[in-house]
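Posted in: Protein Modeling Q&A

I'm a second-year student putting together a small comparison for a lab meeting, and my supervisor asked me to include a predicted structure for Oxidoreductase. I've never done this before, so apologies if this is the wrong subforum. The sequence is pasted below exactly as I got it from our records. If anyone can share the structure token output, I'd also love a short note on what stands out.
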Amino acid sequence: MTTLPRHSAPPRPAVAPRVAAKIWLSVFLAANVLLVTVFFFVGGLSDRPLISIGRLAGLYAAQAMAFQLLLVARLPWLDRRLGMDRLTSLHRWTGFSLLWLLVAHVVFVVFGYAGLEGTNAASELVSLATTLEGILRAIVAFVLILVVGAMSVRFARRRMAYETWHFVHLYTYAAVVLAFTHQIAVGQSFTSSPVARGYWWTLWIGAGVAVLAGRFVLPLWRNARHRLRVVAVVPESANTVSVYLTGRDLDQLPARAGQFFLWRFLTRDRWWQANPFSLSAAPDGRTLRLTAKAVGESSAKLRSLPVGTRVFAEGPYGAFTAIHQQQPNALLIAGGVGITPIRALLEDVAGHVVVLYRTHRREDAVLLPELLNLAKARGGVVHLLVGPKEQSGPYGPQLGPESLYALVPDIAERDVFVCGPAGMTSAVLRSVRQLGVPAAQVHAERFSLAA
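Accepted answer (user: helix_wrangler)
Welcome! Here is the predicted structure, written out as tokens:
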């Protein structure tokens, strides 16, 4: 068997990995929606249309809840193909859909029974909560999801520390348990059909197992096996530092250039903090390297991290990898600290590579010597674009379509990998669309904590 050179174009799969994952999720969701709809009609309708609508909304809400668990399970197969950006976006839309389905469930059921009993909605809600098993638990679950939904609105999210936002989201698990027990107690699908009951048990147990495996079992097993520890801390600039780690059997760790981990450095003052940092060098089977800029207290403390510190790492995560490369050549575009996954990708993408590195000042261009040496070794090109955001060149904005075309005339025949601040990333995506780069060839990683 002939071994391909490291930078030769990868063989294309019959279906692109991202497309395969989207098809799988769409088929899974459509099949489950169809099954639930069939079970609902087989179970029989209420004489009151409002009650029937409310019950159907409740079934779809329960299904959305299970789908949410699948999205947050961080299953490697899905994460490598869609990436946390897309999974986070799906999670957000599913969450708000779940919220509105629950609102519809409560409103239609309460008003339906109020009309049946000849009472007002408030009295009927109190009556249901005090006379039917599971209703009070459902109300508590509904309130918890309302709170989480309110905290997830962009206005509130931007004013909240990530740790606080994450802690509030943990209440969702309590809501899931309460909602499930409510469904067992009074759900018509559970009480009237053994087949439907078997379906719901399978769906909920499967979702729970996915979360348990992806969020707990797999990270614990990997860390017990690899036993990561810090072997060097190297300042790269006045406010940027690289941390080198080693461990056991790192050649068996399924990490790729462009991915990131959630790192916990197990010192007395920071073991409880998990920070997302990308690998800044392609994994070589012996060491891992992350490079971080001091943008907060936690990342600033990395400079004083003791050698020998044990590390608990969750991951690898992210679809910002060369497995998605479609064309023989690539363009890598980085802004600020987004250079870290781009620097790693420079070792892994195939063909001729052009790197565009956007910084405010030349002295901010960390890892530049490495980029230049790597590019030279493989016949690539690095363009350093320096200046404020509004900086323009001979062809307009530095990352505008005219400037990109002047620097990379064959951009439409390349895969484009973009990582940087959200504003810069959005500007580049607009530019490449105007230049006619097919969407399948554009791979973006928005460098933000939520991702």
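A couple of things worth pointing out for your meeting: The radius of gyration is 25 Å. The chain has three domains: 17-222, 227-317, 322-446.
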